[in-house]
Amino acid sequence: MVYKNVISDVGIKFATASGDSSGEIKVVNTLINQWEELTFDFTGKVGIPSSTNIDQIIFSRILILREPLTKLSISTMLLFLPAL
């Protein structure tokens, strides 16, 4: 879940100790100043070599600001759920 006071992309990727990654997946939050659950679908990445032996979760919070912000607030809570 994410709590942001601006609408912008949120990216997540998994990486290995050698730095390999299967790439970043981005979604955009649609709510501000409240918790929102974002879903990142990595099913297309399962089984490729860079998706094994993962030891890192990397977040990117991409912001394109068209006006100055007096305060930027971003919080993240991870939930790992079993596959359906």
Class from secondary-structure proportions = mainly beta
* Computed Rg: 14 Å
Compute the number of structural domains: 1
C-alpha termini separation:
19 Å
Helix content: under 10%
Verbal overview:
With 84 residues, the chain is mostly beta strands. It has one domain (2-76). The chain contains no helices and six strands. A three-stranded antiparallel β-sheet has the order 4-1-6, with no helix packed on it. The protein is elongated and about 40 Å long. The chain starts with a strand and ends in an 8-residue tail after the last strand. The model has no long low-confidence stretch (mean pLDDT 75).
Helices and strands in order:
Blueprint: E1 2-4, E2 9-16, E3 25-28, E4 35-36, E5 54-61, E6 74-76
Antiparallel strand pairs: 1-4, 1-6, 2-3, 2-5
Question: Concise description?
Answer:
This protein has 84 residues and is mainly β. The protein has one domain.
